[in-house]
Amino acid sequence: MISCFILILSYPTDMLGQGTRDTVFNVRNPDLNLSPYTGMNRQHWLDAAEYLLKGAFSYVSNLDSPMEFPKQPGRSYPRDGVHTETERLEGLCRTLFIALPLMKENPDYEIGGIKIADYYRHQITQLVNPHSTSFIPPLPKKGGPSQKLVEFGGLAVSLMAAPEILWDPLSQEKKDTLAHTLLSYGNGPTIDMNWRFFNVMILSFFKSKGYPIREDYLKELLEKCLSDYRGDGWYNDQPYYDYYSMWGYQMYGTLWATYYGDQMYPDYAKKFRTHLREMVGHYPYMFSKDGEMIMWGRSIAYRMGAAVPFPLMGFLEDQSINYGWMRRIASGTLLQFLKQPDFLSEGIPTLGFYGAFEPAVQEYSCRGSAFWLGKIFLGLLIPDDNVFWTANENLGAWESEIPKVKVLNSFAPDAEILITDYAEIGASEIRAWCDSKTVGYYQGTENYNKLAYNSAFPWQADGKNGEVSMNYMFQIDGTKWESLRRYKFKGYQNGIYYRDAVLASDSTIRLQLADVILPNGILRVDQVHSQKTAALRLGHYALPQYEGRAIVEHQIKYKKWTATIIDNGQYQLAIIPLENWGNVEIVSAQGLNPVTANSKVLNVIGNTSADQKRFFATLMLWKKSGEQWKNEELFPVKKWDLNMDQVKISWKNGRYQTVNLTAKD
Question: What does DSSP say about strands 646-651 and 571-579: parallel, antiparallel, or unpaired?
Fold first, then answer.
C-alpha cells in the first residue's frame, strides 16, 4: 500500500555554502496518516519548492545577479552560447512560480543570506532599467508576439497572486514604467492558441490596478480562449491536444476566474470553472496508479506542471470531487521526477524528461525554460485548510473501478482522445490527434506521432536505420525511413480506436488502423494500401536497459505462432505477428531512449506490394517482470475471418469481436 520513499544521496557544498544538497528530493517525516501512498502533505510541497529554488539560487550571489543558467548542449538557445535578456527573463519569471508560495508563507524567507522577496522585486525593476543587462524595451509599434510576451504573462500571474510582496512596495514611478512596458505587450498582437492568456493576464492585472487597457481586446481574447474548449476538460491548442490544455488553458482560466472573473466578467468565469469541473471525469485517468504522467507532447521538460489543475480544483470546493485522489496524483507526479537522480544537473532541472534528452528539446527552450514546471507550486495558493490538503489520500479509480474491469477506456468524443488504464501494470495510455505534413520544432515529431503513449514506457525516438517504437516506418526505393505522422480519426466503437493514415511524403501509401484494446496490451488490425513496393516496420514500445542488468530475450512458440519477448527486470514486452509479417527483430539502440542510454525495442518486418492492399495483424503485449506468461495471454486469438474490410475475431475466452476497418463514428 505504501510506495517506497527516496534514498538520500548528497551533493558537494553548493556555490552559496549552504551545505550539502540531496541528489534526489527526500520526503522527510512522511505524513502516512494523511497520505499513505506518497507521505506528502502541504508542508512537503513547500519543501519541494524550496529544494528546487535553492538550486536556482546557487547561481545568484547578490541582488544584481540575474537568473542565468548553464546552457545544455544541443538545440536549446542561446545556440551561440551568449546569454540574452530573453533567457534571463525566462529564468526570472519561471523561478518566480516556485518562489511565490515560499514568499507568501514567509515574506522574510532567505536563501544564502539573500531575502528572496527583495531579490525578485529588484530584478523586476531591472526589466525596465535601460542600464541593466536584463532590460526589456517596450514592444515597438509594429512588433509581433515573442517569448517576452510569454514571460510577461507569467510575471503578471505572480503580481496578481502576491501584490503585497511584488507590487505594492514599488514606487509609483516604477509601477508606471512597468505598466507601460508590460501593457505594450499585453495590448499587442498574440498567437491564436494558448498564448492569448499571456495578454489576458497582463491586461487583467493592470485593469485591476486602474490602468487603461484595450477593454474590447481583453473580452475578445477571453471569448476566443473559451471557444477552444472541446469538452471533458480538453482545449484545442490550434491544432494540437497536449499538456497546454492543462498548464495553459486550465491553469490560466482557473486563476483568471478566481482572481478577476467574478468582478470583471462573471459569465466567462463561470464557464472556465465549468470546464475545470468537467476535467475531473477524464484527465485524472491519464495518470498511472502511482500518479505518473505520460511522456507526450511538446515542452515535456515542463513535466509536473501538467498536474497543476489538480490542486486548483480546490478553488471549486466541490464535495463530489475525490480530492484525496487528486492530491495523490499531483504528489505522485512531483515524486516521479524529484526522485530521479538525472532530473537535476548542475543543481537545476535538465531539458528532457527524467534527465537530459535531446530528441524532446525544442529550439524555443533555454535552460531556464524548464522552470515552467514550477507552475505546479501555484497549487500552494490553495489555503492549508482547503479540502485538497485535508482529504485523505486514496487511489480513486484505481481502487475498484479499474481493477474490476481490468482495462478501462475513457473516450472524449469531441477531442477524439482515448485514455486507457491497465489494472495489471497500473499504467495509463493515450491516443490523440496528429496530422502534420512537415516536420518542425515539434510538429510531426515523436512528441505527437506515436500510435499510443504509455506512462510505463516513455516514448523512444526513431533511428535513422529504421529503429522505431510504437509506430509504422516505411522505406521506399532504399531511401531514408519515414514514420507515420498524418492520422485522421475515424471513430471509437466497442473498445476499438479507428484511424486512417497516410505517409506524409507519399500519399499513395495509405493505412486503415484499428487499435483493439486488451487487458494486457493491444491487438493491431491494420490494412495498408500501396501503389508501390515499400519496406515497412512496426515497433512495440521500447525498454530501457538499466546499468548492470542485461535485457533478457526469449521466445515462446505455440502452434504456428511465436511470441518474442524482452525483459529489462521491470517490465516484459512481447510481440506476436499474426498475419503477413516476416521476421521479428530485437533492435538495440543508443541515445534514443529518455530513461537510459541503451535500450531495446521489438520490430516486426514486412513489405507492401505495388497496387495491392495488405492486411497486417499484430499482438503487442506487456507484463511486469517476474510474472509468468500464460498461453491464453500470449495467444488469445482462436481464429479470425477476413472479409473485405471486416475482420471477425473469435477469442479463446469465448468472446467475439468485429473490426470494421471502414468504420466511422
Answer: unpaired
